[in-house]
Structures are given as C-alpha cells and as structure tokens.
Amino acid sequence: LFLPQITHPRARRASTMAVSNIATRYLLVCIIGISFVRSGAEECGDVTQPLSTTKKNILFIGDSISMAETTTCGGYGNFSIPLLEPEGWFPQHNGGWGDGGQASNTVKGLACSNFWLNVSGTFDVIHFNFGLHDLVSCSDNRECSEHVDLDTYGKNLVTIYNQLKLKAKRVIFATTTPCPGVKTSLGRNNTLVEEYNAKALSSLHAAGLTEVCDLYGAIIQVCGNGYKSCPYQCPANVHFDREGREYLAKTVNKCIVSPAAQ
Hints:
By secondary structure, the chain is of the alpha/beta class. The chain has helices at residues 9-44, 77-84, 106-116, 150-164, 190-206, 215-223, 242-257; strands at 56-61, 89-93, 123-128, 168-174, 211-213.
C-alpha cells in the first residue's frame, strides 16, 4: 500500500488511524469469511479434490449406503474404489468417503451441491442418490426432522439434477435400496422406499435424466419381494453386510463402466 508523505502531525495521526481502521475492518472480514468457509466445510464435509488430468473423474453423492463404511453394517464405497481405480477412474465422494460424506436428505443436497461441485472442469460421471433420509417417518429423534414430503422430494431432486448436469458428462441416479419387511430405524419401511423411488424416477425422467442404476431392483433380485431378512443385509437394518456391500459395488461399477448393461 503506497501512502503519500504527510508532514503535519495531526494529519499524520489521522492518516495512521484511518489506515489502522481499514486494516481492522479487512481483518474482521477475513475472519468472518474463514469462519463461513469452515462452517460450510463442517456442514458439507471435505472439499472436493481437483479433477484428475490423467484419469476419468467420478463423484458419488449419497448417504451411508454409498460411503466407505468400515463397520460390519455399512455402504459399498470401500468396495467401489478398488473396482474403479484399476479401470482408470478417480473416484470421489461428496464431502469425503468418511463421516463428512453423509449427504443426508435433499434439503442438504440443495444447500451443499455448489460446495461439492466447486472444482474446475467437468466430471465424467456423477452418481447420486437421496431417499433414505427424506422418507424418515418419526417424531422422537432429532433425525426425524430430516423428513421431506413426497412432492417436495421430487422437486428438490430435479433442482439438484439440474445443478449436477452442468458439471458432468453423465449423471446417473441410483434408486434407494430396500428396507426389509420389519421395523427399522426412524420409521423407515419398504412401502415408503417404493413411493419415493417412483417419485424420483418420474420427476427426474421428466427433467431429462436418462441413466438409472437400479440398486433397489438389484437387492430385490437376490433377496426377493417382501423379504424380512436377507444374507446381504444386516438384520432389521437399512445397511448391508460385507457380501451385500460387495454386491452393490459390483452393480454400481457395471452401471458406470457398462451403461448399456444397466
């Protein structure tokens, strides 16, 4: 910063105070900005890494079913990575593969999509799902507030899709996986899953979506209609055991690498 020389003592003091005030205001703006970015990062997870210039780039957006869970019951993420990387893909998950990668419901999707997509360039594929957190049906847990009614869910998905398609050559929607025919967490049940899947597909097809990875159908194919238990899914749980997670990862890999085989 260049300041002209001022010889009058009072003028010099006034100039020094003015510069000090400007510096103080600038520092406050920077602190507020940093706080805002940190707040966004805490809400939306880790920052998306720069796109690879030598590999095909794919971004997964979804809840714990697509995350790289390390517990017995979890998602398929940590099985998708070793399938995709040898085939020349650089896979990322919204907010990271760990705890920050929880995409939750479509309300969070609307709030965080720009954060997740904040990279230069275009993804080869974005594979996304919302559903299990939108369809919760309960009132006795803080997660119950994640519920999004059916019509709003469809509208939110279309808004999110319209954002994603601007940053990807291909956008794939993954259907929400089934709930077993027993009581599961937060009032989830398979009737709701089917209703929300139907709304998702009708809304997104009308908006121009052409690719669907039918994870719901893939699980029904091996577990059967109306199942109450399945070797691929943890008992009375929406998550999957190791065998189920591997099976889902292979299904997803097929949707990405061989779209004609969906």
